[in-house]
Amino acid sequence: MTTIDDTESELIDEFQLLDGWMDRYQYLIDLGRRLPELDVADKLDENRLAGCQSQVWLASEYRDGRVHFRAASDAAIVSGLIALLMRIYDERTPAEIIATEPRFVRELAFDEHLSPTRSNGLAAMLAAIKQHAAGYLNAPAA
Questions:
Q1: Which of 135, 133, 30 is CA-nearest to residue 84?
Q2: pTM of the full predicted structure?
Q3: Cβ–Cβ < 8 Å for 30, 64
Q4: What dihedral do alpha carbons 124, 125, 130, 134 form, nearest 10°?
Q5: Per mean pLDDT, which of 21-25, 51-55, 110-114, 138-142 is the most reliable?
Q6: Where in the sequence numbering do the catalytic residues fall?
Q7: Which of 42, 96, 91 shows the shortest CA–CA distance to 71?
């Protein structure tokens, strides 16, 4: 398995190959369309994230020493952001997740090109991912 840094570098390289932000938005939408369908059992209020304008659900479980995430949104670009986050953080150890800052946000200027509500939603998703990981930090590997 590649490291989180390697995965972030791959994502940064992919986005830098795209001509402009319209292409980047389209790429995000395409990534979001490829997300696995979230089971209705995971679309509970307790899994719904506050701080997101669109509906976003994030569920996780801890197996084999790694955090396994499931997530979805009802908005196309937000679904793409979820796909990026899943690619970076899914199936990582809690310590890896907690220790890794999302440098792709800064390096790809997402903070400058996303609307304020999407930026807030991205921050809420990142915080929730780290919170889930923190909850598993001292759990025995199941």
A1: 30
A2: 0.91
A3: no
A4: 90
A5: 21-25
A6: 52
A7: 42
